[in-house]
Design brief:
The strands form 2 sheets. The protein has a 6-stranded mixed β-sheet with strand order 2-1-3-8-6-7, with helices on both faces. Strands 4-5 form a two-stranded antiparallel sheet. About 40% of the residues lie in helices and about 15% in strands. The chain is built from 8 helices and 8 strands. The chain has about 250 residues and is an alpha/beta fold. Helix 2 crosses helix 7 and helix 4 packs across helix 7.
Amino acid sequence: MTILYRIDLTRPDFFLITCEHGGNRIPSRYHGFFEGREALLRSHRGYDAGALRIARDMSDALAAPLVVATVSRLLIDLNRSASHPHLYSEATRAAAADIREEIHRRYYLPYRTKAESRIAQAIGGGARVIHVSCHSFTPEFKGEIRNADIGLLYDPARAGEAELCQRWRGALKTVAPALKTRMNYPYSGTADGFTVHLRRCFGASVYLGIELEINQKHVFERGRHWQALRATIIAALLDAAEVGTNAEERF
């Protein structure tokens, strides 16, 4: 079997964990835009429940840098391109242009610049970056039940991303066969998002961008179930990426 994931044995892997939708915080300056929208902020549209928790756990397990945001995606969506029509939600889209620009300058640019700079620095130091962007999805959307427990989003044209996700799914199937892991579900890995932007900045041999999606039904069970699921997902990633194995022994 031809191994595609380990493209260059001379480059050590550098993991970066991010979470673009980690909270539903609205800075006090913008509270007026969300009066009467408190329930919306608490919903799946306000933030990705559980995403921040697994991002922190994954960062700890990998001793990897963590870049997170806790402002609500309804203020500005950090996982959208700057030109995306839904960069701002209905709550902020009608705000004056100077207010939108202020939000963009205060929250969007610093977050994206911080993550991109960490990647560029690691690549400049000779590493290959494996970026895992942590998200979660609502169990039901527009009347449709989402038929997956875990989604792995990637660009099929990037051999390294495809192989790592296949290995991650295989490791999950081994340790937790009851879990259903689907590729590029419930969204496409090439749809507008931060990893898509980063692929335009960094070549396939030095940057792998994966979005992890977890069904929120597991998050809402809380307790031991949610804790165990996080541990399972992370252990499977460690196995898939062969973390802790010497480069010469990996393949």
